[in-house]
Design brief:
EC 3.6.5.-, nucleotide-binding, alpha/beta, hydrolase, 430 residues, GMP Synthetase, Chain A, domain 3
Length: 430
């Protein structure tokens, strides 16, 4: 099964907690702090692999987690860093942040990689909190949180030449004759439900050709499997529009030609402006001198396109068509289109997280609920048996304006303050 779109959840590793430890050695009755720092959590790294062809693996596994950092240890020993998790995707995969809809990376090159979710930083051990006033800190810093997000993987094939046209017009047959590809071929609609790739070898050069599955009217709106098919055309440099000029399906070739071009234009102006050759397919079922074919040829050429009569099963006209496609491809490579400006995901802003230090207060009945991202980290670092550690927590909440806000909301001495899963009774120390 060819899978070209998947949604997965990625979770980086949490930073290891700093250690609370004191020297315990013979003849050192009052050893100082020696708790080491926690290790960094593992990153989620996405890398493009040219050997992969589908997103099939992501159909069954939906969650990917990196290893957490190890907690710090005594004797100032650092915790081990968590192992990064490498996720391999096919070359040509676009990685999108599901929450914002912004592109995180377009994986065009084999081996291209980026960090999709950074691991949490390790917390500092208590040895870092010793000073002239605090000689024996009985607390350490908790490791930073995991980075958790949902991403969309969307595979867009990378091909030099793309075959487009209605179903059952001979695209698969042309691909099979022109390349070593072996697509399924038969006489019924939607024989090809997935794109097929093959390599065309001409003299001392070659190019990749893709059979883009059949397009129908309304494809640009997603009818049938329209959008699934059309997106694979975006990366092709040259199009070959295959039209059944024999009318064997009971359709008008000129009408077919116009309808497919209209679908391409309504999907994307960039796609509609790609260089295009027209393959007049199944010419063996009519005649190159027939009035119907000559009328079609004149009609298409009047719109500025070159027409090549072909019959793939008997290999008629295929060589001429492929030579012309190579010529157009070489022109396109010399004059690439201007890159489309894309709004990309801002990793710098994401890393800074302006909301990190904010503290929020919500009143639920007679209880004041206090939350915040950095507050969670400080709370996790608090030693509730150590007065200095508790006072640091209180001062942080006070300095962020939360105590004042609770007073404004009507808080009085004896009221309950809830911080995460713990409840405290408020008393004014002044």
């Amino acid at each position: 099964m060819f899978v070209d779109r998947a949604k997965i959840e990625i979770v980086s590793g949490k930073g290891g907690n700093g250690s609370v430890s004191f020297r315990r050695e013979p003849f050192v009755p009052e050893g100082g702090p020696d708790g080491g720092d926690g290790g960094k959590g593992g990153d989620i790294v996405i890398i493009a692999d040219k050997n992969l062809r589908t997103l099939m693996d992501f159909k069954y596994k939906k969650k990917y987690e990196a290893e957490n950092g190890q907690d710090g240890m005594r004797k100032k020993k650092f915790g081990k860093n968590g192992q990064d998790l490498i996720i391999k995707v096919p070359q040509g995969t676009v990685v999108i942040d599901a929450a914002t809809g912004l592109v995180m990376s377009d994986m065009l090159e084999d081996g291209q990689s980026f960090i999709a979710a950074k691991g949490g930083k390790g917390g500092k051990g208590n040895v870092n909190f010793k000073n002239s006033v605090r000689q024996a800190p009985n607390f350490a810093e908790a490791g930073n949180f995991v980075k958790e997000r949902t991403i969309i993987l969307e595979l867009k094939m990378i091909a030099d030449v793309g075959l487009v046209g209605f179903p059952n017009v001979g695209k698969s047959s042309l691909l099979a004759v022109a390349t070593s590809a072996r697509p399924k071929i038969d006489n019924y609609h939607f024989t090809t439900i997935d794109p097929n790739l093959g390599v065309v070898n001409i003299a001392d050069t070659s190019f990749v050709m893709a059979d883009i599955a059949g397009i129908i009217e309304g494809a640009h709106k997603g009818l049938g499997l329209g959008l699934k098919f059309l997106k694979h055309i975006e990366r092709t440099r040259v199009l070959i529009h295959v039209v059944d000029v024999s009318g064997s399906e009971g359709r008008d070739p000129k009408d077919d030609f116009d309808k497919i071009n209209a679908e391409l234009a309504m999907y994307s102006e960039d796609v509609a402006e790609k260089p295009m050759l027209v393959a007049a397919s199944k010419i063996d079922l009519t005649d190159i001198d027939s009035p119907d074919y000559l009328e079609f040829k004149e009609y298409v050429e009047s719109k500025g396109y070159k027409v090549f009569p072909i019959s793939a099963p008997i290999n008629y006209g295929v060589k001429e068509l492929l030579n012309a496609a190579l010529e157009e491809l070489q022109k396109a490579l010399k004059n690439p289109p201007k890159e489309k400006k894309e709004e990309y995901f801002d990793f710098e802003t994401d890393d800074k997280d302006p909301d990190f230090k904010n503290v929020y207060v919500e009143k639920q009945g007679n209880t004041y609920v206090v939350t915040g991202k950095q507050l969670q980290k400080i709370f996790d670092s608090t030693n509730f048996n150590d007065f200095g550690s508790l006072r640091y927590l209180y001062k942080y909440i006070e300095n962020r304006g939360a105590i004042r806000k609770m007073h404004e909301m009507g808080m009085e001495e004896g009221d309950t303050i809830k911080i995460f899963n713990y409840e405290f009774e408020f008393y004014d120390e002044y």
